[in-house]
Structures are given as C-alpha cells and as structure tokens.
Prior knowledge:
Elements: H1 4-60, E1 78-84, H2 94-111, E2 115-121, H3 123-131, E3 136-140, H4 149-164, E4 170-180, E5 183-192, H5 195-198, E6 209-212, E7 217-220, H6 228-303
Parallel strand pairs: 1-2, 1-4, 2-3
Antiparallel strand pairs: 4-5, 6-7
Amino acid sequence: MASQRDVKNKIASVKNIQKITRAMEMVAAARLRRAEQRISVLRPYADAIGRMTRQAARAAGSEVTRVPLLREHDSETNMALLLVTGDRGLAGGFNSQIIRAGLRLSAEVAEEGIASSWYATGRRGVSSLVFRGHELKGSYTGFADRPAYADARTIADDLIQAYVDGRADRVEMVFNSYVSPLTQHVTRQRLLPLSEAAFVGEDGGPVETEPDDSAGVRKALVEYEPEPEKILRRLVPDYIEISIYRALVESAAGFFGAQMTAMRSASENAGELITDYTLQMNRARQAEITQEIMEVVAGAEGLS
C-alpha cells in the first residue's frame, strides 16, 4: 500500500490539474457564446448567397458553361481536398474525426483512379497529414479560433486557381458543422464544380420558379440586369468564399463546444480520482495508526 505522503502528493497533483481543466472549460464556454453569435449572424447571409447563386444559374440556362467555375472538366483525375481542423487539441475527437473522414474520402476516390491534393486549415490537421506522409498543397494556420473573412478568401483563391488551371478537377471540403456544445456533425461539401448544386435547392428540390402561361415554359422569379452569366462570374467566387468562411466559423464554434465538454468531463474525472485517493489516504492513515497502537501494546506487554 502506498504511503500517506505519496497519496497526499497524488491528491495535490490531481487538484492542480482539476483547476486547469475548470479554467479551460470556463474560457471555452465564454468563447463559445461569441462564436454562436457569429454563426447566428452568418448563416442567413450564407443561405441567401446560395439561393441567389442557384437562381442565377437556373436563369442563365445553357450559358452557365461559359463560367469557368461552373464548367465541369472532361475527366476527373485529381481532387483537391480541404480539411478544416483546429489549431489546438484537448477537444476530444474533434480534430481526429475530420482527419479520418478525409482519409476515407481519399481512399474512396482512389478506387476510382482519382488522386488527392491535400489542403488543411489548423495546426492539428496540418501536422497530422504531414506525419502520415501526405504532401500539402496548401496549409493555413493561426486563425482557427477566430477566423476572418480574409482567411477564407485566401483559401478560396488557392482552390479556385487550382480548379481553373486544371490542377484539380473537383474540390471537396470536410468540416465540423456546429449543432450544439455536445454535437458536431462531420460535413462534406463539394465546392467545385458548382453546376450540379446550382440547379438543385438546399433540400434537394428544384430552384424556385414560376410558370409562364404565354410561353408554356418556366422562368426564374427574378429578372437580371446585367445578364445572369455576368452576375454568376462575380457571384460564384463570393459563394465559394462564404462557404469556406461559414465552415471556418462553424468549426471554431464546434471546437469550443467540444473543448468545453472535454474539459468538463476531465474535471469530473479528476473529482472522482480525488475521492478515490482520499479514501486510499484514509486507509493508509488508519493502517499507520493501527500499527502504532499494536507497537505500543506490544511494548507495554514486554515491560510487564
């Protein structure tokens, strides 16, 4: 049995760890509230940009093929894969589940003869991919806790340029979408090409249109000036940027929620350890007292 002093040292160490985990939980909770506010403001704007892009693409009709970002390549031989992770750990499986999802996606497309070009945000994703021997075409770190729109624009510019230059025939993004502090869903989103997404609504249904009785066809609800094609050339890059920015903001909120939950669990586990060690220390103290009493009794009997 461990000595009383050893058990006291263990209790002191666990209490120090518990203080740290409780402090980290409170910091994560405060940052989570701010991140949730950013999400509540961003989501309606991002959804509106998506609707505008789909409606403009529907109105453009066959002219969408003139927009480079809406034109599918003749064949797919390379996929650009963007993984959105955090700069720090101590958040349970938040980062590892994104990395696993990216590796699974890469393995799936590899069976179809499609190679993967890796892009990653967050130090955890970058270091994990490098450790696994993957060459990164783009790494973006230092802003995972509070991303700015300029960060999303930098990432979008690199991915768009890779698609336009033919270095990538498809662009996919994997990130944690925020649901609650306890729940973050791994989400996969195709960024490029946009042709398929442009003609389908968010719920998988068709884009809103209204019937034209005189012509017997359906037309878009909005009249565009200038032409929809010119609007799409400006709107599509904005749509990609806002999609990446939304993923970064959702990931930041998800990270704080996961970290808060992980640190709360760690604090509770530390409390259980302290209770167990306290019982162990009491047993050690009782054993020492019993031993001392037996020695006193034995000594008294020897003198008599």
